[in-house]
Fold:
Amino acid sequence: MHIPQALQYFEETLLDRGVALRRFRDVRAATLRLTAPLSAEDAAIQTMPDVSPAKWHLAHTTWVFEAFVLKAEATGMAAEYEELDPHYHYLFNSYYEAEGPRHPRPQRGLISRPSLEEVLDYRKHVEAAMEALIGNGADDEAWARIAPLLDLACHHEEQHQELILTDIKHVLWSNPLRPAYTQTMPKEVRPAPELSWTSFDEGIFEIGHDGTKSGSGFAYDNEGPRHKQYVHAFQLASRPATNGEYLKFIEDGGYSRPEFWLSDGWFKVQAEGWTKPFYWQQKNGDWQVFTLRGQHGMNSAEPVAHLSYFEADAFARWSGARLPREAELEIALAGHGNPARANDAASGALNPVAAGGEGLAQLYGGVWEWTQSSYAAYPGYTPAPGAIGEYNGKFMCNQYVLKGGSCFTPPGHARATYRNFFPTDARWQMTGVRLAKDV
Amino acid sequence: MHIPQALQYFEETLLDRGVALRRFRDVRAATLRLTAPLSAEDAAIQTMPDVSPAKWHLAHTTWVFEAFVLKAEATGMAAEYEELDPHYHYLFNSYYEAEGPRHPRPQRGLISRPSLEEVLDYRKHVEAAMEALIGNGADDEAWARIAPLLDLACHHEEQHQELILTDIKHVLWSNPLRPAYTQTMPKEVRPAPELSWTSFDEGIFEIGHDGTKSGSGFAYDNEGPRHKQYVHAFQLASRPATNGEYLKFIEDGGYSRPEFWLSDGWFKVQAEGWTKPFYWQQKNGDWQVFTLRGQHGMNSAEPVAHLSYFEADAFARWSGARLPREAELEIALAGHGNPARANDAASGALNPVAAGGEGLAQLYGGVWEWTQSSYAAYPGYTPAPGAIGEYNGKFMCNQYVLKGGSCFTPPGHARATYRNFFPTDARWQMTGVRLAKDV
Amino acid sequence: MHIPQALQYFEETLLDRGVALRRFRDVRAATLRLTAPLSAEDAAIQTMPDVSPAKWHLAHTTWVFEAFVLKAEATGMAAEYEELDPHYHYLFNSYYEAEGPRHPRPQRGLISRPSLEEVLDYRKHVEAAMEALIGNGADDEAWARIAPLLDLACHHEEQHQELILTDIKHVLWSNPLRPAYTQTMPKEVRPAPELSWTSFDEGIFEIGHDGTKSGSGFAYDNEGPRHKQYVHAFQLASRPATNGEYLKFIEDGGYSRPEFWLSDGWFKVQAEGWTKPFYWQQKNGDWQVFTLRGQHGMNSAEPVAHLSYFEADAFARWSGARLPREAELEIALAGHGNPARANDAASGALNPVAAGGEGLAQLYGGVWEWTQSSYAAYPGYTPAPGAIGEYNGKFMCNQYVLKGGSCFTPPGHARATYRNFFPTDARWQMTGVRLAKDV
Amino acid sequence: MHIPQALQYFEETLLDRGVALRRFRDVRAATLRLTAPLSAEDAAIQTMPDVSPAKWHLAHTTWVFEAFVLKAEATGMAAEYEELDPHYHYLFNSYYEAEGPRHPRPQRGLISRPSLEEVLDYRKHVEAAMEALIGNGADDEAWARIAPLLDLACHHEEQHQELILTDIKHVLWSNPLRPAYTQTMPKEVRPAPELSWTSFDEGIFEIGHDGTKSGSGFAYDNEGPRHKQYVHAFQLASRPATNGEYLKFIEDGGYSRPEFWLSDGWFKVQAEGWTKPFYWQQKNGDWQVFTLRGQHGMNSAEPVAHLSYFEADAFARWSGARLPREAELEIALAGHGNPARANDAASGALNPVAAGGEGLAQLYGGVWEWTQSSYAAYPGYTPAPGAIGEYNGKFMCNQYVLKGGSCFTPPGHARATYRNFFPTDARWQMTGVRLAKDV
Structure:
């Protein structure tokens, strides 16, 4: 079977049309559950260029199925696909240059029409066509081409599920009324365990996803090729840094002492007036933290979240430690991480909870953990030609890798080889820090 | 009877509570008719800092009754007014420093909540309190204080009725789908009459509103005092300049020849790449114009609209003419203008229509006409103390006066002494030009 | 005799070639005296877009003679003029669109070559050609055309003499060492007289320069035509406001109370963090003022200087007064001002000194006095065609008129009809305020 | 002997005071030779924030000796050092937070005083004190502390020698007259050899400087520790890419085809309108290149220079190749590079010349070669505490490593382990590209 270059790490069980249909329906339904609490206005506005409206996420994830499956893979299909509205191609393409011109990203909030209702109709329209295709609308040869793309598009939609939560948090926080996304499900409070350190020996390690092992599940092209790295001895903290620990950094003058900061970070601190994590606010001397459940008193035991790379790095220096390297965290995740018990989106917490348990806790879920590794191509990596090749490769510059997933990540989405990446000043993501040390 | 300084030009008929109630209800209902075609999303977004969302206009016009009547004039009222939500004071204050801090103007589109529905409830809440007050909730002494404020707040709401149309036009135009506000009511097409000139002799003229004549109706404080000006002989064009005439300016290289432009205007032309009026677009060689009825072929006979001061002035120089002065247009409006037959919002045209009739046509309605007069205080003018004094006075700088009203102006709102004003680069308003000449 | 439209107010005595030669030499020598204290580096750098390097002023004033006389009026000349370097036309044109493309204004400080020495050679080259022309290089017909242009170019160079002092003050102040332009000539200190008010009756007044009276001396085109204005009764303060008076405004919270400020001014105060006049600085609780003699303790009796329009206007409101109108100051200057005793550049003070004497003191010299009149065309004014017409006309927008000259103005340069103008936020000019009141 | 942490790679021969004196005098004299052709104005202006005036370089390199030796290491000195002017500490500190506040980098061109002459006096003042110290002004214990700092400061001054040439090139190019730094020494033209490829096997390699080997010469702290890396098999091009090759990329639409560009690079191309290398200009259809010898016709055989990382990367993709990794170039430099025959500043070419010879040509000199490796800490690296620790460590973020030196690099300054680094959009440096490939 031929699998396109960008998709070689493909979940072959999806070749079973029944399995594929179930997977497709599950992903699509999960997205709607996330947007259900939002009004048409909540879903329409854009509070900064990095944020996309929920309506746009709903439409764009649909457009990916339309553009990369329904329209791109027409050969061998029983019926030609008809677009609901040809303008949607312009409005809902995100960044694929090969797909032609598109609506500028910072202007996604300027589009009141199509309405939320019309976008939900668009979802149904594409879903009907996809279901027909999965059923009997594609012959077996076409299906073998389509199944990997469907796999990719489902994982793509899961990424946007995390972004929907991330972005709506910024939208609600931008409102001086500080409204909540949901007020149900009170949050259990438990203390954070003492910090301890786990040591790893030096040696040659294999890193990255091995595309040939069918049992290892889906992976994006940027996770391969699996390759050797020489890793020096290191230590990892037993859990992510907490709000309480970060508060000590603040109280020790962390934001006013240049000796802890990268030069670019110190510039940012001064230019933007940073004095605390993004969603923190001091009220009558007490620290409050904004969450999807509204604004609450700061919980010292919870992992500190919404740190930029600059803040994570400065905190690490102040701590007498450093940020981990990508390979170090991947080794730990592969050997010690248990995604099944993660504080991910399935936990319903919608906020990082205090890590528990023995050894290396909360490697998965909670907060994405910054690494000091620049997001770069693995040896032998080449992006696929065409639009699909733009998925990951063209961002390999001036961004840093994060590992492990967060409390906003859909269950099953993160894995040891997963490479998330953001610029060094990004603060609206669910990002935190686990300290590392040389031995 | 004591009338506060800022409100001396007051429609005394409103002292009759029945008249006042009718006036109040009419104004409030007219606003809702304008927003009826808008979805919650149309009413929520803000497409540039100058534009306010329709939802904000609905709330702010309500807040003015709440802040300047219900809360400010409590003495002599039967029952204390209770706010629906104390946060609204922060959200819906526009620019009144004396009323305390407020939500920044460029961020009015970042507020998804309160929802449109909640804002409509806010309107009803304030309307009920106002109706009670007008009925018997205020004793006669209080009512004498309140009636002028009610008069002011009704005229204020009419100003925002014009802005609702102006702003929603920008919102819809910002959408690449170019949707229409309404598609009903096709527009009659008639030719524009030949341009002719009317001459006026020099002499001393009285300009501005005389606050003592009760028959002359409402006026803002900035329209007085009535005072003498020495006006030199001048000529006025019989009608506003048309699209067809403006097209000749474009085709003669108007936007690429600095000799027609003020220095600041030429800078703007180059910095912003201006080559045509704001809502014009060339498609396959044909000119189209965006209107509240969608995008249509350009009609040469219609008044050219959405010109900045810079464009109006450059066009006038190219024409061998000049912009009128404020006094010149006021003299013409007072002597020749007939507001009753105006192409105003009551005409339902929602676009300037070709001027008709003899003499000085369409002095009222159609397009606001730029004057070369900087918006400045009349001799003897002093703003009232407190928030009400901020209504007009603090904007008397770097703006230019416009006269006569437009097709977006509510009927009865414009008058000869009315002074509209905008900065020299404003293009989203319904603004055009009537040429003038020295004799 | 034919005088070009833009130059109708021409000093006919200059038709005498001997008089013209003396005038030319005097003006040119005066410029060099001003730049003598400057090093090559002082004369080269540009500390903000509004500031021009002294080297550029030296070259540009020369270019005006070259472009508007030597090259433009070749007919009737004995010998063809040869440019020293054809690139200078591009480098030293200021803003004349009709003269073709030119070096961008904000980049005048990026030109290290030609060196100061080469620019001084350029001056000599043009001076030699001009002297030849004045002598016998132009026949009488040509001379009649040239003499008015020479008159204009000499007055133009005087304007730049004021700018040389204004701009070098900004250059030196931008240096944290706060060096002085000159340290000679200590400044006499005397107290400011009590403020009193002079009243003027209302009536029709004639304003502006009458081009036909040969005795009245040179005038720019924007000073005419002389025309009637109806002026209402007013009062003028006996002297400009002092540092001491302005300090009271500051101490009364002037910069933190929006009720005194125009809306645009208040925006500027907050955006730029204004808390004091531009060249003031607080050091250990004492106020210091930077002058061309270095930084010194603030003198309460001296006129407050370097106020923007916004600050002058806010101070006037705080004082319970207002800014004068252009006509009001012109009437005062024409009737009461005595340029001969002015605190102008010939006084050598290089800073405004405390006003003295009876009645309306220091109408000339000291500080340019802001008016509330927008810089606009007088009735009947039309700019000349071509480059010369760009001298004044194209700036008639968003600037406000100042009257009377300053301590930086060359002697004899200011007059009652003189119209200086700057934007409302300009602070680097020698600008102050004389209060006015309605009667 | 104790060597401070940041300086462990120290040229111990400098412990001999005679050797140290010779080295100090050589470096100082070389700097003056570079600035000799510049006028006071050439040396004063700053044409963009990244560029520093030559006068500032002259002063800052002197300040380093003053701040880090004369003032910091006073113990054991015969006489206390006296500053020439205490303000210089503020003016000429570059970026050392630990040394206190300093003049903002983008405003280095706003300082006309001290003059060039005064700065040259400052150099002599510090040189006299340093010579006294090297002679007998420091006892042996002090000298053991000082010698490594002198070593560092001499290498520091060599870095600024390269920057003086780099920055004055930008200064002269910013002048529309396009003046030359020098017109002597015509440039030999020879063809570029055919491109060939050299292969390297995979394996574990040691990278970085080994601080313990005294024979290997000076190194900065960021070059260590020497450590193991697993390097995969790769190929390197025999020489840097040429102007001729880069022209083919341009002619093939390189600057208008997003498929070759990183996402951030493509954004930059569009935002800045990039269509060619920084110093190229098309004139009547011919390509010209600006050099320190003025503007000349483009030479196809010469290495293409002044490429940003984005351009180097896009060109590599277009070529079907990739940028080398840091370890790959270091392995090649260590095994094949011959600094003695380099096209460095000693060659006097002042421009990259066509590479010659067998095998891997021009690894040293010509152009700095971009690598795809983000500038990051080597395993075990920690910056020294205090100001010296800011030299390199705080820039390890969002910059990419360059190797091999350029035609502007002083002879002997570059070495295999040397790590130069710049942001991805820097174009004013002497930067080019050598292609690499996977095997």
